[in-house]
Amino acid sequence: MSRGRTLREQEGRAGLALISPTLVITLVVVVLPLLWAIMLAFQDVRLINIRQAGLFGNYTLENFTYVISEPGFWSALVNTLVYTVAGTALSIVIGLVAALALRDRFRLRTLVRASILIPYVAPVVAVAFLWETMLNPQYGIVNSWLDEPIAFLTQARGTFLGLEVPVALLTVIAFEAWRYFPFAFLFLLARLQALPAELDEAAVVDGATPTQRFRYVIMPQLWRIIALLSVLRFVFTFTKFDDVYLLTGGGAGTEVVSVRVYNFLTARDDIGASAAQAIVLAVVLVVFLVLYLRFFGGGEREQG
Amino acid sequence: MSRDRFERALLKVLRPLVILFLFVITAFPFYYMVMLSFRDIQELILDPGSLWPATFTLDTYANVLDRQGFLIFMRNSAIVAVASVAVTLLISIPGAYAVARLRFFGRRQVHFLFLAVYLFPAIVLAIPLFVLFTMLGLRGSLVGLILVYIAQTVPVTVYMLRNYFETVPQSVEEAAAIDGCTRLSTIWRVVLPLSKPALMATGLYAFMIAWNEFLFALLFLVERRESWTVSLGLSQLAGSIEIPTTVLMAGSVVLTLPIVIVFFASERLLTEGLTAGAEKG
To answer: Which domains does chain A have, with CATH numbers?
Structure first.
């Protein structure tokens, strides 16, 4: 370091030098590929002709018109939306119930808490295989409890109490709720345990019943974290690939957009169409996020 | 009976039931997994409802580890996970220190970067990386996979470590500087020893991501069986009819056990790190 520099300049240089490995790897493995994915979406490319498709190749909107004109895409988008909204809502509701139930100490709390966290921590491949085995119509344990076996993961429609229900889609949603409620549980329990006890005590003195305390004392203090959890879970679930792919492979009316992206990329070898669908998926996600922040983000700030 | 008394009485009954329900839905599947892994497939098919094996067998484990090649998959997973952890720490420690302590151009935008990468859909990234690795002939090599894992974890680990580094008193560092430490030796001799819990948590986070990951392993390695990770191996063999389910259950236990052990050995560190980060964001 030369002597002419001020300490402040030296600090700035050292900071950039220390952060640069982080920046370089994110740039090379995340940012540049993202830009390339956008370019690929506007080109007619397959793995065979990829080398001819240059930086200034023939840009076209064909992929998008092709992808959007396929009916499979729209049903996949609807599935994605149903799966995401239901999975997010259920995992947060169950997580909230779990956090409230485990808020106060009891014997074996540590054990129950540990048990609740396992579905979230365990590798997705292992738990998906476990569910597949448990729900297997021939030798699955769940079906041995039922009078009539149900093909939970391979049956698109079935009747339940006289209603027609999408069996496989509901099973996948149940899996999502089961696997990710511990995530909501962790955040909500941490928040609950950080709440000042005085408010709750004051409400007890004022004669508030448990449900009233929950409604007027606890919930107002949890809205912020629930809003944050909703965004996080929505974003993660909306583009999730592993869970649906491993459980059903996208069959039986559970095809979500990310599984379509994968199938176009590998089985159909249509990189352009695959990228186009991924971009549409990402854009839809961003639109939802912007809408969400418009309607809820503003209100959040007013409440302070 | 007043409303208050009624509600309290109801909750007193309801709460243990809810706790029991949660315990059963989370613990039972894993009990079932372990139980099946010690059973013979014939026994399962004859009596699918039984909750305790008539005879215990370890053949399932011998079969899955040796014949199905899970030992090799475990070696691959271990290589990928350990390399990811090492490089992630190597990159994120200086990065986190810079964000925590040094004023440099663009410091505030780093948060945005963290958030963007954390929320970024892997499936979008999968396409260009798949194409790129195919072109470079890197498909089937573990190195490419490790690179992707590092890129996915580094922004998060920088953020986790930064939160911790900020709690290290600045005066300790100043004292070290007066004693003649350069910036790097201050990090090495003062900041890192004080941040051991955070380093553990960060390393374990990177380990879990690398051990559990499925999509990129599937895209990059599927054609070369000898490079499969445990996750990929189980998912690929799960479809085959020749391998008995109980043998694959043994494979699931082999896949799950390391991560569960690692998690509970460090649970407090990890959950505190995760939720502390979230509170601020």
So the answer is: 71-303 (1.10.3720.10)
Kindly report the nearest CA distance between residue B199 and chain A, in angstroms: 17
One-letter amino acid at B21 equals F
Query: What values do phi and psi take at A43, rounded to 5?
Result: -125, 155
Rounded to an integer, what distance in angstroms lies between the CA atom of residue B227 and that of residue B78?
12
- Number of CB pairs, chain A paired with chain B, less than 8 A apart: 259
CB A278 within 8 A of CB A37: yes
* A278 compared with B101, residue with greater pLDDT: A278
The predicted pLDDT at position B277 comes to: 43
Contact B19 A102 (CB under 8 A): yes
HSE (side-chain half, CA atoms, 13 Å) at A46: 7
Contacts of A138 in chain B (CB under 8 A): 45, 48
Supply the pLDDT for residue B279.
Answer: 38
- State ipTM: 0.88
Q: Which long-range contacts (CB under 8 A, 24 or more apart) does B64-67 make?
A: B64/B247, B64/B248, B64/B250, B64/B251, B64/B254, B65/B250, B65/B254
Q: Where residue A301 falls among pLDDT bands split at 50, 70, 90?
A: very low
Name the band, by pLDDT with cuts 50, 70 and 90, for residue A123.
Answer: very high
Kindly list the residues from chain B whose CB atom is less than 8 angstroms away from the CB atom of residue A37. Answer: 124-125, 127-128
Distant-in-sequence, close-in-space partners of A95: CB < 8 Å, separation ≥ 6: A181, A182, A183, A184, A185, A186, A187, A188, A229
Burial of B272 (0-12, 13-18, 19+ CB in 10 A): middle
In this predicted structure, the answer to whether residue A161 has a pLDDT above a threshold of 80 is no
Q: pTM of the predicted model, to two decimals?
A: 0.89
User: Domain spanning B64-280: which superfamily?
Assistant: MetI-like (1.10.3720.10)
Sorted by where each begins, the domain ranges of chain B are 3-37, 64-280
- DSSP notation for B154-188: HHHHHHHHHHHHTTS-HHHHHHHHHTT--HHHHII
Q: Which residues of chain B have pLDDT under 50?
A: 277-281
**Whether the Cβ atoms of residue B238 and residue B68 lie closer than 8 Å to each other:** no
User: Per-residue confidence at A97, pLDDT binned at 50, 70, 90?
Assistant: very high
- The encoded tokens of residue B261 equal 């052990």
Residue linked to tokens 């963007």: B116
Compute the mean pLDDT over every residue in chain B, rounded to the nearest whole number.
86
**What average pLDDT score do residues A196-216 get?**
89
Structure tokens at A267: 């089985």
Contact list, B241 vs chain A (CB under 8 Å): none
Minimal Cα–Cα distance from A193 to chain B, Å? 12
The amino acid present at A221, given as its one-letter code, is Q
CB contact under 8 A, B127 and A274: yes
Residue contact A118–B91, C-beta within 8 A: no
Q: Tell me how far CA of residue A142 lies from CA of A127, A134, A236, B256, in angstroms.
A: 15, 6, 29, 22
Instruction: Give the per-residue pLDDT at A1.
Output: 47
Contact B22/A116, CB-based, under 8 Å? yes
Tell me the mean pLDDT in the region A116-142: 91
The distance of Cα A68 from the centroid of its chain, to the nearest Å, equals 24
